[in-house]
Structures are given as C-alpha cells and as structure tokens.
Design brief:
about 90 residues; alpha/beta; three-stranded parallel beta sheet; 4 helices; 3 strands; about 40% helix
Amino acid sequence: DILTRRGLDRYFTEMLGSPPAKAALLASIVRGAGAAPGDVVMVGDSKTDVDAALIVGTRFYGRGEYFEGGVHPWGPDLAGLNDFLETAAAE
C-alpha cells in the first residue's frame, strides 16, 4: 500500500511481506523465476535478509554499515550495487 501511494509500485512485479518468513518468500521468488539460487542476488539491509539468502543459497549484497567488515559485499547505500552485479554476471 505504501509503495502504491508513493507511485513506486510500477517498479516491482511483486511486493511481499512477512509472514511467511523471508527465507520462504525468497525461495518462492527463486522458484517462480525458474532461476538457480546461485544466480540470484538478495539485496537487503538486515540480519534476517542475509539469513534468508544463506538458507536459500542466493548471493547477497548488504546495504548499510551493519555489513561492514563482514563476509558479504556491501555498501553504505546502493551506489555500488551495479558494479557488484556486473562483476557477478561476468563470473
């Protein structure tokens, strides 16, 4: 509802929330896309986002200082996401 009111819904094919758990939602999205989990990138800003990616087996890109010094690629904002995606696509 919030995305619709702000006119942002046109940028999404689905808008999902919990429950169910994020891992179940992510697994459903991956299956629905017919993609291999390793070919999918979960972008998130919380521990539950990275946990879902680990459970499902997707790649992860963290947004925010919470991920600084961790094992996952991250940025303080999403400015570095495009570079990460281009590098991931070339692998």
